[in-house]
Amino acid sequence: MDKMTEMVAHMVGIFHTTLEEERMRDAFDKFKALAAADPENDPLEAMGIEFKAKYTLEGFTPGLRYAEGSQVDPTTDISSPFFSGANYPILKLPPIVSGPNHDFPFFATSAEGRITFTLEPPSSVVVISFQDAYLTDNDMILLGDGETVFTDPSEFLTQLQTYQSIAVAIAAPVNSEMILPGENATADAITLHDKMSTAEGSTLSGVSAKILHDAEAVGLHINGEAVEEIPTLDDLMPAFMAAEDEVDTVEPTDDEDDGYDWPDPFESLAPGYSNTDLVDIDDGHEVVTGANLLVNEVIINSSWLDAPVFSVMGDVVNLNIISQVNVLVDHDYGTFGELIASTAMNAATLTATVTTPVPEEGEEVAGEAEDLALPSNWAVTRIDGDLIAINQINQYSFVTDDDSAELIFGSTNTYIGMGDNTVINLTDLAELGYGYDLIMIGGSMISVNWISQTNVLMDNDTVTVSGDIPVGISGSDNLLFNSATINSVGVDSYSEMQDNFASASANFANGGVDIDENVAHDSVFEGTEILRVLYIEGDLTTVNWIEQTNVLGDSDQVHLALENLETTTGATASVTTGSNATINAATINEFGVDSQVAVNGDVYDDALLYQANLIDTDADPLGVAMPALANEAVAFLADDMMGPDVAPEDTAIVATASESTASSDVMQSMLA
């Protein structure tokens, strides 16, 4: 830098420095003026604060005083009512060793001649779960000239609500309100038993119904017929969904290099990274307007309260009810490929497993070869009022996927997804509770397992094509599946009330808190060292109440303009408007032991299995008589079950065949 340039730079630097000083001075003056106007910015005045500590920390002094002395009689050293009237010898106690585990903690106290054990009572359990899912996915896509006329989706909604009311009517013969605990629980349970005994299958036109009672309902059944095995969902799923579930797996090897080229998880963080293959699209053109999946699933594993011996002063009501209904309406119009039939299946399993081993021929029964001792002591606990175990699960899904599409293809590969929705409601309960040797009930013992499942699917599709016919158009291949399982581990056998149990129950009802040897030394308790007894003043009510409903409307309207498709794009097209699945799955597992139940009242023990299907896949252009069936269904419904939104239509559902696939109104064959 020459001398002249250095002088100029120096002057410019001085100029900038002076300018900044002036700016800072100006800002500082403003800040100083604002600070003077704000009293809160005045200096803080320190206030005098004094601290006083009254206590001085010292070392650890628990205050225990140890004195050596000989062991004395506890009755002279301890002042407690637990030791009054008892004479304890002075003994050297043996070392403490681990003993067998007990289900409950016992609290021992002493009384005249016998140690008294105090047993904690069980608690009630109530689970109420309502799961609702609503989805409206009515898509419209126009890739052509936009001249296609589509039916308003609201008309499909009205039809779907009508079919739902028909499903309610089909299930009406075994419909009931849930049994609620309380003073009317026994009467309500007996009323349900009487209704089960007289229930008959639906007589609505076109309904295939089967109803089985008592022993006939036990076992495995599909659509009213006894079977040896129930197929798995993998064997029943629509082809479109089954193909999606196929995943390539890599067999593990002992070598460090397993032969699989694992992607680099940090690849996307590298500078300049660009992924042009985010979506893997198969060759050709694929349109999916169906393929919806609705799932309701409940699993209840319960082992809340049981005993090998029961004494019931009231009635015993044991009911198992399974009701399953499928309604499928599948009318397809236009151009479709090979028909793949839909599946509507009701599968039920009702089993009971004995826990007492059955000796083989020639084998000695355990306990016969030796004399088993009677209980030497007992522990008693009581509950004033009712003891309840209630599980109420209600799952409901309502989905509409009424898509409208006018499509042309100009690229090599295309995927258009307008359906493929998944809606799931799931409940999984595990209830592990209490076990006793004897349960005495002053009221009634009520056990109700109720599973009600309903699937409603309307899949009325219209597909029209102008130009080349694509390789595959699928409009059916739907699945409606109801699966219900009631599995009981432990079987109850009933007998008349014994005098000793009746006398003890009367004593408890009058305020008693203990039993005597007449009960404890009953022969049914041989082999039990300490008898655990529970007395329930009121009812023992156990209810598992499951209701599952799927309602799916998938009425798609698709027009394909495929002139010179293969010439233009070099690929073919496929359309999936069906391949829907509505699934209800409920499992109730009750774990216990075989029980002998002495009953002072009556015994109501019954099982009911009701399975019904209404399948309408008649696509005849003259139409079907669904409105007439809807009017017929009204007779089976109460007035308060039919709202204004679900009233059946008076007009007939009639389809008009299109005269030409090239018509501007290509949707005229859709139900309206």
Explain what this protein looks like in three dimensions.
The structure is a single chain. The chain is an alpha/beta fold. The strands form 5 sheets. The chain has an 8-stranded mixed sheet with strand order 1-2-14-25-19-10-30-24, covered by helices on one side. A 7-stranded mixed sheet has the order 3-15-26-20-11-31-5, covered by helices on one side. α3 crosses α9. It is built from 9 helices and 31 strands. The chain is flat. The longest helix has 35 residues, at 3-37.
Reading side by side through the largest sheet, how are the strands ordered? 1-2-14-25-19-10-30-24
Shape label = flat
Measured on Cα atoms, how large is the radius of gyration? 39 Å
Q: How many strand segments?
A: 31
List keywords for this structure.
9 helices; eight-stranded mixed β-sheet; flat; alpha/beta; seven-stranded mixed β-sheet
How are the SSEs ordered, and which strands pair?
Blueprint: H1 3-37, H2 74-77, E1 106-111, E2 114-119, E3 125-136, E4 140-142, H3 153-170, H4 185-198, E5 208-213, E6 219-222, E7 225-226, H5 239-245, E8 284-288, E9 293-306, E10 309-312, E11 316-329, E12 332-334, E13 343-353, E14 377-383, E15 387-400, E16 404-408, E17 413-417, E18 422-435, E19 438-441, E20 445-458, E21 461-467, E22 472-474, E23 479-489, E24 492-496, H6 499-509, H7 517-520, E25 530-536, E26 540-553, E27 557-562, H8 565-569, E28 573-576, E29 581-591, E30 595-599, E31 603-616, H9 626-633
Parallel strand pairs: 2-14, 3-15, 4-16, 8-17, 8-28, 9-18, 9-29, 10-19, 10-30, 11-20, 11-31, 12-21, 13-23, 14-25, 15-26, 16-27, 19-25, 20-26, 21-27, 22-28, 23-29, 24-30
Antiparallel strand pairs: 1-2, 5-31, 6-7, 6-13
Helix pairs in contact: 3-9
